[in-house]
């Protein structure tokens, strides 16, 4: 079984396993490894341990970070600022509907990655040509979501503290309005949304502790359970409304609603019938008089 360590490249970023490769490294050391993007300096956050064979081959640690590597990383940060300013200038010149968020340069300067957000897909081929001609290296454009944008930039939530995704969250879990309903929170989008405009990640903290049985359910099943389990609130303003709500629904072989009402209605009195007859006779007389006046 290979001996590996856990390496993290960004604060609160994902942890990747790398093979020790016979190098004496411990937790807290800075190491140079070859990631998917190229050479990078990472921080060892999980001490060496043995794991079973992976399906894919693990990459190995190249060396411990030296003073020269740290100096090179500092120079790369200056290049990142220059590349970001130049990219912003070219975006405005070409009128592209995109928002540049972050720029990253690999340790060997063989690749520059630009992270951006956009509402739809962007044709940035001409932009890549401009950047490649300027910096003479490989250019990579990566479109990210609004939650990743908030994680990279950082800010403060409505609680007054730093965002959870910036402090300790390594991945984003799905959040739904059902979590707020089950916790009996006010269903106000402005109060439940974070800086990114999505539902706040903290809605899932207490929900996972209070309702652990709902985690394994699918979205369709969980929604049906939450709707049935919620107590129904009924407000009655008059006895007439209550009587109408409790009327039976017409079914085959059963007297309908209208016939049910007619059976419960009391029979008219003789005086009421006589009054209705006089009223109908008066209406006929008035119509006849109006027709005569019209003909004259």
CATH topology of the domain at 72-144, by name, is GMP Synthetase, Chain A, domain 3
Per DSSP, the total helix count is: 11
Q: Biggest sheet, open or closed, and with what strands and sense?
A: 5 strands, antiparallel
Radius of gyration: 36 Å
- Order of strands in the sheet with most strands: 2-1-4-3-5
Shape: elongated
Give the averaged pLDDT, no decimals: 77
The SSE string, one letter per element, is EEEEEHEEHEHHHHHHHHH
The fraction of residues assigned to DSSP E strands is: 15-25%
Terminal Cα separation, in Å? 115 Å
Portion of residues within helices? 40-55%
Structural class computed from helices and strand pairing: alpha+beta
Which CATH C-level class of the domain at 72-144 is it?
Alpha Beta
Gist?
With 296 residues, this protein is an alpha+beta fold.
Strand and helix layout:
Elements: E1 3-8, E2 15-19, E3 30-34, E4 39-50, E5 61-64, H1 67-94, E6 99-105, E7 111-117, H2 125-135, E8 138-143, H3 146-153, H4 164-167, H5 177-182, H6 189-192, H7 203-210, H8 219-229, H9 239-245, H10 257-264, H11 270-295
Parallel strand pairs: 7-8
Antiparallel strand pairs: 1-2, 1-4, 3-4, 3-5, 6-7
Helix pairs in contact: 1-2
What would you note in describing this structure?
This protein has 296 residues and is an alpha+beta fold. Among the domains are: 63 residues, no CATH class; 73 residues, GMP Synthetase, Chain A, domain 3, CATH 3.30.300; 64 residues, no CATH class. It is 41% helix and 18% strand. Helix 1 packs across helix 2. A 5-stranded antiparallel beta sheet has the order 2-1-4-3-5. Strands 6-7-8 form a 3-stranded mixed beta sheet, sandwiched between helices. 12% of the residues are buried. Helix 2 links the parallel strand 7 and strand 8. It is built from 11 helices and 8 strands. The chain is elongated, with a radius of gyration of 36 Å.
């Amino acid at each position: 079984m290979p001996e590996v360590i856990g390496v993290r490249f960004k604060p609160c970023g994902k942890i990747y396993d790398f093979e020790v490769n016979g190098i004496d490294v411990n937790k807290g050391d800075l190491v140079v490894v070859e990631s998917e993007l190229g050479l990078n300096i990472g921080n060892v956050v999980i001490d060496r341990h043995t794991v079973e064979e992976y399906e894919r081959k693990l990459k190995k640690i190249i060396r411990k970070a030296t003073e020269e590597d740290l100096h090179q990383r500092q120079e790369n940060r200056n290049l990142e600022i220059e590349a970001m300013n130049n990219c912003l200038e070219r975006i405005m010149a070409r009128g592209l509907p995109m928002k540049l968020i972050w720029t990253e340069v690999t340790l060997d300067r063989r690749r520059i990655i630009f992270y951006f957000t956009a509402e739809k897909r962007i044709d940035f081929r001409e932009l890549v040509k401009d950047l490649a001609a300027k910096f003479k290296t490989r250019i990579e454009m990566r479109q990210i979501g609004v939650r990743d944008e908030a994680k990279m930039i950082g800010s403060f939530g409505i609680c007054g503290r730093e965002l959870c995704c910036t402090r300790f969250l390594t991945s984003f879990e799905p959040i739904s309005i059902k979590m707020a309903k089950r916790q009996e929170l006010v269903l106000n989008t402005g109060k439940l949304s974070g800086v990114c405009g999505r539902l706040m990640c903290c809605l899932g903290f207490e929900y996972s502790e209070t309702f652990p049985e709902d985690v394994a359910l699918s979205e369709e099943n969980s929604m049906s359970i939450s709707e049935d389990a919620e107590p129904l609130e009924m407000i009655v303003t008059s006895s007439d409304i209550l009587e109408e709500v409790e009327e039976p629904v017409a079914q085959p072989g059963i007297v309908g609603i209208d016939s049910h009402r007619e059976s419960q209605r009391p029979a008219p009195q003789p005086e009421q019938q006589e009054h209705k007859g006089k009223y109908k006779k008066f209406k006929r007389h008035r119509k006849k008089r109006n027709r005569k006046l019209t003909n004259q």
